[in-house]
């Protein structure tokens, strides 16, 4: 990959990157406006639980493994550079745990990737339930920007901005009184984004893409990325076009509609999860190359299929890697003009 050096620098553990970053210590109690609720943090958490892979990985990137009581809701393996620290953190569940399983870890803070985990109809529990036990909860600002997402993926009215991710990193680092680490992590992600923009921004004006996360059934309607999510951001940076125009985060789209648009490139999500029909990327590729209609698409016939970490298709710390992956692939396909 063209961006390996930059990625390698960012992959260094945060404790190795913080020697030159200084920030004022957090003054407690700290109050943060989070998803329309005031979250009050009386002191730096010592037994945090991450609900959602991205929330957990941010905490690990901030060097907080020793201040975590558990994690849950995983889609892919932990980032390799975080594997050792992740081994120190109790895995409550790979999927969605129940309220009792989380409370059994005696947490003093909950970091949730999605409102569906802790919202009014939270699949794990509600924010009020945790608050009643004296446990503050924090929801990723990337999900706060989505509407109608209490029980589903919802819709995003405005294009996702990395500023929402930077807000999340900054706020979590202040909550844990490690703001210097947050600033350094943000600076490194920004540097990676700037490097991609300088190299390939707006060079894919003739390219159309579709991002396939998964499907309930392999040959049935597929969950494709809507126009304003993390995949939309990637497409916007490249100056390309997402053939899906829906504001829904993950609309179900029929293959007839996709075939009618005949995208230049098909991006397929890779993951370890196996609870939906098309979670396995090998299954996706087999369908693309054997279905009598889909196999005739230009992207399939020309081999313009990109495998990308499914987590990068959601607004996460992996989205920057997704941008690098798609940019490098388009370059290798000779599609950047």
TrEMBL record:
- Which InterPro entries does this entry report, sorted A to Z? ABC_Transporter_SBP, ABC_transptr_periplasmic_BD
The keyword Ribonucleoprotein is annotated on this UniProt entry = no
Query: Is Protein transport given among the entry's keywords?
Result: no
- Kindly provide the name given to this protein in its UniProt entry: Iron complex transport system substrate-binding protein
Q: What UniProt keywords are attached to this protein's entry? A: Signal
Residues covered by the Fe/B12 periplasmic-binding domain:
47-337
Signal sequence, renumbered to the chain: 1-23
Q: Could you tell me which species this protein originates from?
A: Aliirhizobium cellulosilyticum
What taxonomic lineage is listed for the species of origin? Bacteria, Pseudomonadati, Pseudomonadota, Alphaproteobacteria, Hyphomicrobiales
